[in-house]
Amino acid sequence: MLDINLIRQNPEEIVAMLHNRQLGSEEPKLRKLLDLDKERKELVARSDDQKALRNKVSKEVADIKKSGAGSAEELIVQMKTVAEEISVMDTRLSTLEEEMENILLGLPNKLHDSVPIGRSAEENVIFKEGVSFEHRLDFPVKNHLELGKSLRILDFERGAKISGAGFPVYIGKGARLERALINFMLDCHTERHGYTEVFPPFFVNRESLRGTGQWPKFADQVYHMQEDDLYAIPTAEVPVTNLHRGEMLDAKSLPISYAAYSACFRREAGSYGKDTRGFLRVHQFNKVEMVKFTRPEESYAALEEIRESAEAILVALKIPYRVLLLCSGDISANATKCYDIEVWSPAEQKYLEASSCSNFEDYQARRSNIRFKPDGKSKPEFVHTLNGSGLATSRLMVSLMEHYQTAEGSIKVPEVLRPYTGFDEITQAAE
């Protein structure tokens, strides 16, 4: 959530940000917010004046009753009128503040100066060119669906029977390979990159979604358990960031770095017409998430650290990839700056997003009320929050299977995963 003081002081800067994000249609809401804020300020001043008058009259009534000199009836009637006026103003103030908060919750974050201005994904900037590794595919390449079916390691048809389209089933060595990927990534982030492992709940309350910015703007993307009023998490970012909701963190503990595995659930509303085959677009997938809480002055260095940690996984797996710096028209509403890391699919002949690494500055911390007291200062400040996929396994699995396939139709297991799988190849004889 943006700081209302920032909007008051720099309204045109916020308007420009909305247009750079291709959200110019939101400008009337911003103008309404400023009008409501002006009305609120005037109402607070009037309410304070009336409350001061009420206190003055109450004292005069008490003095008259104490001295016994004269009648206080006229003052009592006046005090009653003032009290009624205050009640009306307090009710209006409550309504104003609720309207203002609803608008603030729907406004996107500001943009960092380094974010390129662009209309859509086509104008994202290549931060790092395709990083390739030697994978000799001098034979007809099968896609991940063909490989998964022929090796009997993936079953999308039975997943659809059980739950519906977009819910994959991993079988035999496919399940072992998926588990190996998750364990390998967690070990890398905890043992090499300094993260503390967390295993969070997969269901959260609305306040948690509100805290990280998925509510109310992206309410149509999450699964809701109406009876319990709980939501299936779209990413581990939600429960892990909310670990410290409403807390005053010890400045000496910063930065705090967490790595968490979770299943992720997304309705993918609005995906009609997009390629939904296999792992390209699913409703349930696995992901290892990195989350950081930092001092404001350290957050952009922390963003580069997160990006490098995500890249390190792909380097270790020898999966070809590239890094994009997202432009203003493609970056998520919550982020001030974001890198996407994409893996190459030989069968699809295109890059597929496997990780997003974002800095939110104090946008989430303000919504979640996560603060710390800077050294030598008495006034608390909001921390900066960041996260990055380290990584999502679904599209990573697409690239891994396709790059490590052989002419005979088997899949070699990347060397770093073999201690986790207990085998080095998935062949036609897979169970």
Number of strands: 16
N- to C-terminal separation?
Answer: 50 Å
Oligomer: single chain
Gyration radius (Cα, Å) is 28 Å
Q: Major sheet: order of its strands?
A: 1-9-10-11-14-8-7-2
SSE sequence, one letter per element: HHHHEHHHEEHEEHEEEHEEEHEEEHEHE
CATH architecture of the largest domain: 2-Layer Sandwich
> What is the highest CATH level, the class of the largest domain?
Alpha Beta
* Coarse shape: elongated
Mean pLDDT: 93
Q: What is CATH's topology name of the largest domain? A: BirA Bifunctional Protein, domain 2
Number of helices: 13
The tally of structural domains comes to 2
Name the helicity range.
40-55%
CATH homologous superfamily annotation of the largest domain: Bira Bifunctional Protein, Domain 2
Percent of residues in beta strands: 15-25%
Short description, anyone?
The protein has helices at residues 4-9, 11-20, 27-67, 73-106, 144-150, 156-162, 173-192, 206-212, 237-241, 299-317, 363-368, 393-403, 418-421, and strands at residues 125-131, 196-198, 203-204, 224-225, 230-232, 248-249, 256-265, 284-294, 321-325, 337-345, 350-359, 371-372, 381-382, 384-392, 411-412, 425-426. With 431 residues, the protein is an alpha+beta fold.
